[in-house]
Amino acid sequence: MPQKIRWGVLGVAKIATAKVIPAMQHCEFAEIAAIASRDLNKAQAAAQQLGIPKSYGSYEELIADPSIDAIYNPLPNHLHVAWSIRAAEAGKHVLCEKPISLTVEEAGQLVAARDRTGVKMGEAFMVNVHPQWLRTLEIVRSGEIGALRAMNCVFGYNNRDPHNIRNMADIGGGALMDIGCYPIHISRWIFGEEPHRVSALLERDPAFGTDRLISALLDFPSGQATFTCGTQMAPYQRIVFFGDLGRVEIEIPVNAPPDKETRIFVTTAAGARTETFAVCDQYTLQGDAFSKAIRGLGEVPVPLEDAICNMAVIQGLFESAQSGNWCNPASFRPIA
Questions:
Q1: How far is CA 123 from CA 50, 302, 323, in A?
Q2: Ordered structural domains, the chain, with CATH
Q3: Does the predicted model carry a pTM greater than 0.90?
Q4: Which of 223, 212, 94, 219 is nearest to 156 (CA)?
Q5: Percent of the chain clearing pLDDT 70 (strictly above)
């Protein structure tokens, strides 16, 4: 087998240290070779705790390391684009956390950098590689539940910490950016279409200025998707797809546990059944899938073209919430 792709991690974000790094340390095609922080002590502590060979006191040093093949970027949302471009210009492939940018225009800058440098670059929607989602897609596309007509999602948690980046409006915090991006991405993926108009109601936290509750409607050519996301509500997540002959319900759609089986519930005229999936870690699968794409053994799971379309819907929902009118996401996308 070819040498593993050597990954460097920008920052010591919790998603990196608690979920992604431990998972990628079990990858077949990837290894975590270095981690960086603007605070060298934090980088060294994380490296020691997680058994990472190298640590750096700046992002620049990590990006300049010639032994690093690829960069995982879990920085706060407003830093995604700038540091992903820096990495690409240094010849590093980039897997960037969602949402990939703050605007469609920013996402376009990533496309330009990717095309200019020839690196692989993608958005870290790990759901695309989880078996429960690949099976859901297969069921819907097979026609077993008939024509797909609707998707409904509720996704929320309760976080009132003023120091948490999700509660900081000026750096891309809020419900829509943090978790609303998931039902948008998933509905576009499963429908296999782009919504031609979107509408949203949004409530902002009076102290933080972030959107703490959003309900949205996406109007697709062949059906509709609705979701409610909140950052100050009881923790919960569930997604259901409705066809004209049946439905598929995903029990834990986004935060699928790495140490437990997952389940989907399928109901048709023939009856109801539960499909169970073996224990797996979606971040391990994501790391291997992206690393294989770097080796030319597959495609980037979520390419930048998809990220741009997702950002266009996010931008359209913000616009709709402000104007009180429907918005066409295509108006934000660049003309092909």
A1: 24, 6, 29
A2: 5-126 (3.40.50.720), 127-285+311-332 (3.30.360.10)
A3: yes
A4: 212
A5: 99
